[in-house]
């Protein structure tokens, strides 16, 4: 009864274009942000941070990035793992080369560097489409991971071939390195996730978002009405890679603390993020969060039920997880190609009419 | 001497290329008949090889799961099955898989965009990989169906007499080449000279038109996926015999992708030529350039080659030219 | 057929140049080949400012190819295109769009995943120049442009009477409305020349009348120059100021509707060979 548009009149085009047109949604959103920023940091322990919340936020950023490319611009990429690696190695090189510069600047720079690399590998998208492009992005995946493994300069000639994040602080709080507290990890990732989600929302509702969607829906018509395919596709690759690069930087510097390219950023990472986008919903920012939450929570859930409760071996649980994820991907593509986000929207539409549906 | 050594690398590359071509062939078949780019082809090869080993060694399917659920300790039935029956049984299971895929997946995705179908096959790949592990366990398995293995002494002796340098060539590679060639010939014969083959080509050309002359689309799809399953089985036997049945086997699918990009998704000769080029190319590149840049270039060479190639000829070597209209 | 001054627009009234200004686009000796097939053979005609110019002809006459040449999708092997007194070099389609050409498509080319409003807003993409970073933080020029262009788009939505479907995804609309949204998208660009590819194909009588009315109103109220392709002879003769007739890639007639109607070659192309 309360969940209504009626009576909530929009008097300007600015109001009409806002993200949450229904008042209750807006309040819910502000309440959620308040809890996330003001309540959770005081209660978070290292299990919740490391097993659930921090990976959720980081993968949400990566999923938003990939969703911009796949869901909005219609260019399928299987190179996410490689681009995350670029972000991780870029932030590592920057952190070790310029220890005096604040870590947040380094993370943003790592995003920009990844954006450049992404544009480079996006160039073939002008000539090739669909799954030809998807396969071509595998070149980025394999080449980049190989590069970071084989060229010692990237890992500062460390004996193990690994990169390890040194401690960096922000106003006296450790943000990276082994001494980082659970709440510092969580808050760092939360700030990036919230700001980047807001940026993604702005981009996708504005001019450049329309260009992307036009290219996605009908590229030839888009070109004829005046969309330059070069700039539209490359900007999608750049913005997407920027997000993914930041996710990679956070994954390495804040979450893992140490990484090795082929292990942390292999082809499976590319698929994991792609699945988050599919399950969450193509072309939806909310869906990116939902998909990330789903695929971060699923293994935790299976582990708790199968291993802890039933006492099954861990590897069996892992194999069952593969089957479940695979089946879910097919299920979502068949039943609801727009994923969890669409299910959520349908629920809301029903709620808007409830209890008088006619 | 340098030249002879390089040509040995080249010949070995050619043999590896035959293997790539074999997997690529499975892709082309499915793509031509149903427009589905089947990412799961490589996992199908893995699944087929696992199933074959499981049957031949008399393993209990789902032993892992059964043990965990009921607290028992079953693993083997205690018998072994000869290779020929094992292969026949596995082929039957691959047909069953084809029917299941058609009924549970393809039927519901008719008319969807190709990229959605592609992503569905990625899901299928994960599912099959998990299923294979749950059914037969994830350990590295040894597969031996009686194919000869090891360095061919005959060739080494002959080349040594003739060129003064003995070529090291694996007997298995020679057999693989022969079997692959026979398989390709059989497939071409099937699609050219049988009724079903003609129907398959008709569907590949135009679904609607094929439907309107009374060809059953579902039958053709099941048939094509069965054939692709059989091709996967052959590829699985070869690769499994060579390097053991394990997860990395499914990665050959990824290697087959650049082969397809090179050869064009719709061309059987393209798949073969593409496979040979990639096989030779990556071995030679690794031989000449690899040492300078730290080695292991085989990981990416094929993709980068295909990528560069595509930028200049988007439809591949033998693919049909795409004409855009409004 | 329609209450608007249709009689003024047809026939002799327009030959005095009442509506037609200077030449806006001049096509000189255009030849277009696909491999060995000649789609357009040595065709010349011009489009004058403010007129409704029709290209008609039987199926396969090369009309659509002609429109694709004008909108830059095909580049002719021979011939010159002059636009606003300057020769147009070979261009990419999006560059042609930026010169001020907008078009609709025979088989509706809307962006199905977007709402009606967003589809029409894409027509104004080339007028929105805020840098990416400003769009990212939705600030200053980005927000201002969004609101200003939205106002323009709303005018077109009112004009074409599609207010009630503003937020509907285009994919859900019926055929006739889709055609109207496509027209809206082209109009949103405020083009110098509006190209319409069979705007009335597949419509029932009522929808056709609506579409005629909109085309005439656009021409009247905004003074937009219109070039259209159509094979419904009746409609074309009522709508247009001047008509080019094509057959087998050649031009067989050019003039006012009445002149064209009287042209023996046109009659034979449309009715088969006339009896001698």
UniProtKB/TrEMBL annotation, chain A:
UniProt keywords, alphabetically: Cell membrane, Membrane, Transmembrane, Transmembrane helix
Listed Pfam families: BPD_transp_2
Superkingdom of origin: Bacteria
Cell location: Cell membrane
Membrane-topology annotation of the record: Multi-pass membrane protein
GO molecular function terms listed in the Swiss-Prot or TrEMBL record: branched-chain amino acid transmembrane transporter activity
Keyword set includes Disulfide bond: no
Protein's name according to its UniProt entry: Branched-chain amino acid ABC transporter permease
Organism: Paracoccus aestuariivivens
UniProtKB/TrEMBL annotation, chain B:
Predominant localisation class: membrane
GO cellular component, one term: plasma membrane
Membrane association type: Multi-pass membrane protein
Record GO terms (molecular function): transmembrane transporter activity
Compartments where located: Cell membrane
GO biological process, one term: amino acid transport
Taxonomy, superkingdom: Bacteria
InterPro entries cross-referenced by the UniProt entry: ABC_transp_permease, BCAA_transport_permease
TM segment ranges: 12-31, 36-56, 76-101, 108-128, 174-194, 215-239, 259-279, 300-318
A matching Pfam family: BPD_transp_2
Family: Belongs to the binding-protein-dependent transport system permease family. LivHM subfamily.
Name of the protein this chain belongs to: Branched-chain amino acid ABC transporter permease
Species: Paracoccus aestuariivivens
UniProtKB/TrEMBL annotation, chain C:
A Pfam family this chain is assigned to: ABC_tran
SMART domains recorded: AAA
Record carries keyword Transport: yes
CDD domains in the record: ABC_Mj1267_LivG_branched (cd03219)
Annotated ranges, domain ABC transporter: 25-273
GO-annotated cellular components: plasma membrane
GO MF annotation terms: ATP binding; ATP hydrolysis activity
Record lineage: Bacteria, Pseudomonadati, Pseudomonadota, Alphaproteobacteria, Rhodobacterales
Keywords from the UniProt entry: ATP-binding, Nucleotide-binding, Transport
The protein, known as: ATP-binding cassette domain-containing protein
Cell division among keywords: no
InterPro entries the record matches: AAA+_ATPase (IPR003593), ABC_AA/LPS_Transport (IPR051120), ABC_transporter-like_ATP-bd (IPR003439), BCA_ABC_TP_C (IPR032823), P-loop_NTPase (IPR027417)
């Amino acid at each position: 009864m309360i969940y209504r548009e009626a009576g909530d009149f929009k008097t300007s085009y600015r109001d009409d274009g806002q993200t949450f047109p229904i008042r209750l949604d807006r309040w819910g959103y502000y309440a959620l942000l308040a809890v996330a920023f003001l309540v959770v940091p005081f209660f978070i322990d290292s299990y919740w941070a490391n097993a659930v919340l921090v990976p959720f936020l980081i993968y949400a950023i990566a999923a938003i990035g990939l969703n911009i490319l796949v869901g909005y611009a219609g260019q399928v990429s299987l190179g996410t793992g490689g681009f995350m690696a670029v972000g991780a190695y870029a932030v590592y090189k920057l952190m070790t080369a310029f220890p005096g510069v604040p870590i947040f600047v380094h993370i943003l720079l790592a995003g920009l560097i990844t954006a450049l690399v992404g544009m480079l590998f996006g160039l073939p998208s002008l000539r090739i489409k669909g799954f030809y492009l998807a396969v071509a992005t595998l070149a980025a995946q394999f080449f980049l991971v190989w590069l970071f493994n084989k060229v010692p300069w990237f890992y500062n000639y460390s004996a193990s071939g690994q990169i390890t994040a040194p401690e960096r602080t922000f106003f006296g709080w450790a943000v990276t390195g082994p001494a980082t507290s659970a709440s510092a990890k969580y808050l760092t990732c939360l700030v990036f996730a919230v700001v980047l989600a807001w940026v993604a929302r702005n981009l996708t509702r504005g001019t450049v978002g329309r260009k992307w969607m036009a290219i996605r829906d009908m590229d030839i018509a888009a070109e004829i009405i005046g969309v330059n395919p070069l700039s539209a596709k490359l900007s999608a690759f750049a913005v997407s890679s920027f997000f993914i690069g930041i996710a990679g930087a956070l994954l390495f510097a804040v979450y893992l603390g140490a990484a090795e390219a082929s292990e942390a950023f292999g082809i499976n990472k590319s698929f994991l993020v792609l699945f988050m986008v599919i399950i969450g919903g193509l072309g939806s920012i909310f869906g990116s969060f939902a998909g990330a939450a789903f695929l971060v929570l699923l293994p935790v859930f299976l582990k708790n039920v199968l291993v802890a409760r039933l006492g099954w071996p861990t590897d069996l649980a892992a194999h069952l997880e593969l089957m479940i994820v695979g089946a879910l991907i097919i299920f979502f593509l068949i039943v609801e190609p727009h994923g969890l986000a669409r299910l959520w929207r349908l629920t809301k539409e029903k709620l808007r009419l409830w209890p008088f549906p006619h | 001497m340098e030249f002879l050594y390089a040509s040995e690398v080249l010949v070995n590359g050619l043999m590896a290329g035959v293997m790539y071509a074999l997997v690529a062939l499975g892709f082309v078949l499915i793509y031509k008949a149903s427009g589905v780019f089947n990412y799961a082809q490589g996992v199908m090869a893995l699944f087929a090889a696992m199933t074959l080993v499981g049957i031949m060694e008399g393993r209990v399917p789902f032993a892992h799961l059964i043990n965990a659920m009921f607290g028992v300790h079953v693993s083997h039935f205690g018998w072994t099955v000869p290779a020929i029956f094992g292969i026949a049984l596995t082929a039957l299971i691959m047909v069953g898989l084809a029917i299941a895929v058609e009924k549970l997946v393809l039927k519901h995705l008719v008319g969807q965009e190709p990229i959605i179908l592609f992503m569905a096959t990625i899901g299928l790949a994960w599912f099959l990989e998990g299923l294979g592990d749950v059914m037969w366990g994830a350990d590295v398995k040894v597969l031996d169906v009686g194919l000869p293995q090891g360095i061919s002494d005959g060739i080494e002796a002959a080349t040594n007499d003739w060129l003064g340098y003995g070529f090291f060539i694996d007997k298995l590679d020679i057999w693989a080449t022969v079997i692959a060639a026979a398989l390709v010939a059989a497939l071409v014969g099937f699609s050219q000279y049988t009724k079903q083959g003609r129907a398959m080509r008709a569907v590949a050309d135009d679904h609607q038109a094929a439907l309107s002359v009374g060809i059953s689309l579902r039958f053709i799809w099941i048939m094509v996926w069965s054939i692709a399953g059989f091709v996967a089985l052959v590829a699985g036997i070869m690769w499994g015999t060579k390097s053991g049945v394990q997860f990395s086997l499914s990665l050959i699918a990824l290697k087959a992708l650049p082969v397809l990009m090179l050869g064009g998704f719709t061309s059987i000769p393209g798949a073969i030529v593409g496979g040979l080029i990639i096989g030779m190319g990556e071995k030679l590149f690794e031989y000449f350039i690899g040492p300078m840049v730290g080695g292991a270039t085989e990981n990416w060479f094929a993709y980068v080659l295909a990528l560069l190639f595509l930028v200049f000829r988007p439809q591949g070597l033998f693919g049909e030219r795409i004409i855009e209209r409004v | 057929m329609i209450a608007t001054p249709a009689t003024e627009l047809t026939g002799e009234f327009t030959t005095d140049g009442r509506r037609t200004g200077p030449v806006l686009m001049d096509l000189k000796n255009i030849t277009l080949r696909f491999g060995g097939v000649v789609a357009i053979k040595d065709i010349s005609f011009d489009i004058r400012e403010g007129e409704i110019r029709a290209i008609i002809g039987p199926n396969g006459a090369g009309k659509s190819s002609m429109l694709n040449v004008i909108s830059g999708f095909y580049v002719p092997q021979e011939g010159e295109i002059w636009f606003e007194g300057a020769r147009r070099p070979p261009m990419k389609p999006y560059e042609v769009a930026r010169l001020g050409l907008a078009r609709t498509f025979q088989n509706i080319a809307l962006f199905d995943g977007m709402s009606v409003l967003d589809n029409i807003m894409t027509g104004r993409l080339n007028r929105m120049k805020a840098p990416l970073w400003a769009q990212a933080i939705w600030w200053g020029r980005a927000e201002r442009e969004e609101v200003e262009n939205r106002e323009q788009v709303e005018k077109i939505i009112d004009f074409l009477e599609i207010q009630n479907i503003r937020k509907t995804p285009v994919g859900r609309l019926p055929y006739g409305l889709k055609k109207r949204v496509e027209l809206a998208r082209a109009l949103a660009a405020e083009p110098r020349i509006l190209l319409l590819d069979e705007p009335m194909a597949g419509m029932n009588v009522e929808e056709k009348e609506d579409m005629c009315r909109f085309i005439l109103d656009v021409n009247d109220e905004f003074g937009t120059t219109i070039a259209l392709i159509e094979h419904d002879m009746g409609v074309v003769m009522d709508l247009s100021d001047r008509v080019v007739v094509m057959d087998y890639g050649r031009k067989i007639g050019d003039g006012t509707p009445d002149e064209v109607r009287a042209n023996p070659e046109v009659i034979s192309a449309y009715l088969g060979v006339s009896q001698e």
